[in-house]
Design goal:
This protein has 211 residues and is mainly alpha-helical. α5 crosses α6. The radius of gyration is 18 Å and the shape is elongated.
Length: 211
């Protein structure tokens, strides 16, 4: 099976079996999504969703968050991973968001990455989810799954994975494909023990072919 054929079969299966694929983070606007994605780094969406209701009640706007101290924000996010640094990043991000972008979350990867604590993955998620742009965010699930099932070959870092995926996935499908691969990795193609017997794409999977 060629790489092109593998992509075609896998994307077609997901389109037929998971036509709706969305972020599991809870948010109501671009600002809340940006905050939630920043908190989700090396942390589960479930945990983030437990933290954000009180956080957003206390800081419903970038202006409110920008006026807070990192110690104050820490009290709301202390149950997530790396809470001290994330609290500092959130306040610094909000300050730049207010000072430079007048409280409006920018819609380009380049501008988003000028804010403290916002890396390429976070910027890609925001651009894909909010503005439906063809940006492929690569987290640990997508990095692992893409290589395991054969969508990427020899990828050594998230940027290499991103470039290989974007090369073969139609632009209009990329925002949804991000969620397809992420959710597949989270619930089926898990790191330690992939559930191959429950996997709908096993017949197209490089890992399954070899085992």
């Amino acid at each position: 099976m060629t790489t092109k054929q593998r992509f075609e079969h896998i994307l077609a299966w997901f389109e037929a079996n998971m036509p709706v694929a969305e972020s599991e983070l809870n948010y109501r606007n671009p600002y809340e999504l940006l905050v939630a994605v920043m908190l989700s780094a090396q942390c589960t969406d479930k945990r983030v969703n437990m933290v954000t209701p009180a956080l957003f009640e206390a800081y419903p706007t970038p202006e409110k968050l920008a006026a807070a101290t990192s110690d104050e924000v820490f009290e709301y996010v202390k149950s997530v991973s790396y809470p001290r640094s994330k609290a500092e990043h959130l306040v610094a991000m909000a300050q730049r968001l207010v000072e430079v972008y007048h409280g409006e979350v920018p819609d380009t990867i380049e501008e988003l990455q000028t804010m403290q604590g916002v890396g390429r993955k976070t910027a890609n998620v925001v651009c894909a989810v909010i503005w439906n742009q063809p940006t492929m965010a690569v987290d640990t699930h997508i990095f692992r799954v893409s290589e395991r099932i054969g969508l990427t070959t020899g990828s050594k870092n998230p940027l290499q994975t991103e470039r290989q995926l974007v090369k073969h996935i139609p632009a209009e499908v990329i925002p949804k494909a991000h969620h397809w691969l992420l959710l597949h990795g989270r619930y089926v193609c898990q790191a330690r023990k992939p559930k191959c017997e429950q996997c709908g794409i096993a017949e197209f999977c490089r890992f399954f072919e070899k085992n």
